[in-house]
Design a protein that fits this description.
Elements lengths: L1 E10 L3 H12 L2 E7 L5 E8 L2 E8 L4 H9 L2 E9 L2 H11 L9 E3 L2 E6 L9 E5 L8 H7 L1 H12 L3 H7 L9 E5 L5 H9 L4 E6 L2 H10 L7 E5 L12 E7 L7 H14 E12 L4 H18 L14 H10 L4 E8 L2 E7 L1
Parallel strand pairs: 1-4, 5-8, 9-10, 9-12, 10-11, 12-13
Antiparallel strand pairs: 1-5, 2-3, 3-4, 6-7, 7-8, 13-15, 14-15
Helix pairs in contact: 6-7, 9-11
Bound molecules: S-adenosylmethionine.
Length: 349
């Protein structure tokens, strides 16, 4: 059964201009940003009251770029939310309308199918079923992707500058002790070692294969690397141990309470003049943060997940990050950079 219009999708040439226009004109707020499959397009979701718009901008040659070339900017499709996409697809086929695909495609927690535009209306209709995709347990999620992980991060997710520029903040002092929370394969450490080749690193991560890759990459530095397979929320970080603590792209999966608790531990394990550097995916608006937390809750509830770490992005705004770090005891917290979706913060004791 169809339930409601989920959203109306519009193709534009300049997505940032469109976001600004809808914000200035009606007060639409940005709640989500998604790269299409193979980065063929960029899309955002904007909300105002009950209205949701999806704005699409082609990046590469794709159905969306062809649409823009043939029709210019404008209405791309109307999305109908259904509780049973297979039933709707069957009905559409029996009626004689053409579907773009025989099976629903999965995108960002939804199953989708498209009805090709045809007379009498010539409107492209998206059928959308909001049954959540299964969430993957955190360590398993990263272990399963270890082979393509670095290419994906450097090509599709992060700007390389996020690692190169923030590494310059690490002191070159001899004997520096650095803790890396959620070190993964160590993309940040690759750059940090260039700035301070003698740094002693303790890396904590709960994905075994990610740590193995890091160990292999820096096999020549075994005496400087202490890699710990553990959950950093549970692991005892000690007191007054480290000159610098860093965390890159790891903390955007947790609640405010979990993060504030961890920030207290980070504060305690830093030496008196030490600092914490966080470089992570942060939400551009409060509505964006709220939307992702609400979706995470909805999906976990629907899947019957009560506890445990599952991979789902819940970025926080810079303001909320700063407030949590200050609540944990840090005296000064400053934004020191922005690299695409990543923001870098430095918190001092
Ligand atoms: C997106 S990766 C980032 C890896 C690396 N810092 C980088 O920027 O490439 C996130 C990493 O955080 C780790 N992680 C997530 N939650 C964790 C936790 N509670 N304890 C330890 N590691 C965790 C994951 O296993 C994963 O390797």
């Amino acid at each position: 059964m169809l339930e409601k219009i989920d959203h109306v999708a519009i193709v534009v040439k300049d997505i940032e201009k469109a976001i600004k226009t809808y914000a200035d004109l009606f007060g639409f707020k940005l709640i989500d940003r998604v790269e299409g499959p193979d980065n063929a397009y960029r899309s955002v979701k904007l909300v105002c009251g009950e209205i949701t718009l999806e704005i699409l901008e082609p990046v590469k040659v794709s159905g969306i770029s062809v649409f823009l070339e043939e029709n210019g900017p404008g209405l791309h499709h109307v999305s109908f939310l259904t509780d049973n996409i297979l039933e709707e697809m069957k009905r559409v086929k029996e009626y004689g309308k053409s579907l773009r695909e025989d099976e629903p495609t999965q995108l960002n927690g939804s199953r989708l199918a498209y009805i090709r535009p045809s007379p009498p209306d010539n409107v492209k209709i998206e059928l959308m079923e909001n049954k959540p995709r299964p969430l993957e347990e955190m360590g398993g999620f990263f272990d399963a992707r270890v082979d393509g992980y670095e290419t994906h991060m450097l090509k599709d997710v992060n700007d390389t500058a996020t690692y190169v520029e923030t590494a310059k903040l690490i002191p070159a002092a001899k004997g520096l002790k650095l803790l890396d929370l959620g070190c993964g394969t160590g993309l940040e450490l690759d750059e940090i070692f260039k700035v301070n080749p003698a740094v002693y690193v303790t890396g904590i991560d709960l994905a075994k294969k990610m740590l193995e890759k890091l160990k292999l990459k820096h096999a020549a530095r075994q005496s400087q690397l202490n890699l710990i397979l553990a959950d950093y929320f549970k692991y005892d970080l000690g007191k007054n141990v480290y000159d610098v603590v860093v965390s890159y792209s790891s903390l955007h999966h947790f609640s405010h309470e979990e993060k504030t608790g961890l920030y207290r531990k980070i504060y305690a394990c830093l030496k008196p003049d030490g600092f914490y550097l966080e470089d992570d995916y942060m939400a551009p608006t409060q509505e964006y943060e709220d939307y992702h937390y609400a979706e995470n809750k909805r999906i976990r509830r629907a899947l019957g997940i009560k506890e445990g770490f599952y991979h789902y992005d819940t970025p926080c705004t810079v303001e909320n990050e700063i407030a949590m770090l200050k609540k944990a005891g840090f005296k000064s917290v400053k934004q020191v950079g922005q690299y695409g979706i990543d923001v870098a913060l430095v918190a001092r004791k």
